[in-house]
Design brief:
Sulfite Oxidase, Chain A, domain 2; 18% helix; binds ligand MTE; five-stranded mixed β-sheet; 10 helices; seven-stranded mixed β-sheet; 320 residues; globular; alpha+beta
Length: 320
């Protein structure tokens, strides 16, 4: 496993973090040791309410400063969401405001040195925050470009200290049908679950998102913390995570359990492998001028193609 190696786009702390925070972190490190940073870091707006400005604003990662298309209008994005916990349609933004994100915690467990629970405030305070402008491609053949704020999933993996038997990372969303009325739909296998291999989790593109458009994450985007895997279809990018487990067996995801012929584990974007019920060759750019060709791995092959070399035997499963 190589998740502690510096990836090609690595930036020094000073480049990724506003100077005041960076200097403050350095003195904390010198004085108290890195282990205390999470508890003692200066209070940033991650503790603020969803949609409040993220201050200090994390620096934009120059490697992901431009997605090659305009950023999708925030109002459009914020009213066109998949979040089945709040309804099986796109207009869930009002219903999602019922989600209470204060005091949110994440359990980290399974095959790790020592299971722990951490508040998202503490997790974010100790994380190398950055902004990335990233393409987001849904399996339904629409796409957006979103300026996410977050940190590499590899940061959480390194905090978790997985044991050598850990082959996959499994993610779970909250379950509370009093808040999320969509969860009264008993035919869905709640809670929403997703998973990646430990190598995918270590890839520089696997990103834990805590903000968007310079603001603390909107509830409908999956506050307070969601995954984004831009080379995979959007359903892999699980929202409002409460548990991250390191496991030996491949997790069965929400959609795979419902309909494995249509939605598999890998779900890498490929314009040449159609969904059983529609073409994946093109995509509708939301707010754009119509359809454009879809790119292999959503255009991120340089970063991720190597993860799948030698896996040709898996066949179409790699793309569903
Ligand atoms: N996560 C949870 N918990 N519940 C969901 O219904 N929908 C997925 C994914 N994550 C979903 C989820 C799907 S199908 C997509 S396309 C993206 O979230 C949508 O993210 P967006 O609303 O930010 O565009």
């Amino acid at each position: 496993m190589n998740y502690l190696r510096r990836p090609s786009w690595w930036m020094p702390d000073s480049a990724a973090t506003p100077e005041a925070v960076y200097l403050n972190r350095r003195s904390l490190m010198a004085g108290a040791g890195a282990g205390l940073i999470a508890a003692a870091a200066p209070s940033a707006s991650h503790a603020a309410k969803p949609e409040e400005p993220f201050t200090p604003a994390p620096a934009r990662n120059p490697a992901y400063a431009d997605a090659g298309r305009p950023i999708t209008d925030e109002a459009l994005n914020a009213t066109y969401n998949n979040f089945y916990e709040f309804g099986s349609h796109k207009r869930i933004s009002d219903a999602a405001q019922r989600l209470e994100t204060d005091g949110w915690t994440i359990a980290v467990d399974g095959l790790v040195e020592k299971p722990f629970e951490i508040s998202t405030d503490d997790l974010i305070a100790g994380a190398p925050l950055e902004e990335r402008v990233i393409r987001h491609r849904c399996v339904e053949a629409w796409s957006m470009v979103v300026p996410w704020v977050g940190f590499p999933l590899s940061h959480l993996v390194s905090l978790a200290k997985p044991l050598s038997g850990a082959k996959y990372v499994r993610f779970e969303t909250f379950k509370d049908a009093d808040v999320a009325r969509g969860q009264l739909q008993f035919w869905y296998p709640w809670p929403y679950v997703e998973g990646v291999t430990i190598e995918e989790a270590a890839n520089e593109l696997a990103f834990l998102v805590v903000g968007a458009y310079g603001k603390v994450l909107h509830k409908q985007f999956g506050a307070p913390i969601r995954l984004h895997l831009p080379w995979k279809y959007g359903f892999k990018s699980i929202k409002s995570i409460v548990r991250v487990s390191f496991v030996e067996e491949r997790p069965v995801s929400f959609w795979e359990e419902l309909q494995s012929r249509e939605y598999g584990f890998w779900a890498n974007v490929n314009p040449e492998v159609d969904h059983p019920r529609w073409s994946q060759a093109t995509e509708e750019v939301l707010g754009g001028d119509g359809r454009i060709p879809t790119q292999l791995f959503n255009g991120y092959g340089e970063q991720v193609a190597g993860l799948y070399s030698g896996m040709e035997g898996v066949g179409d499963a790699l793309w569903r």
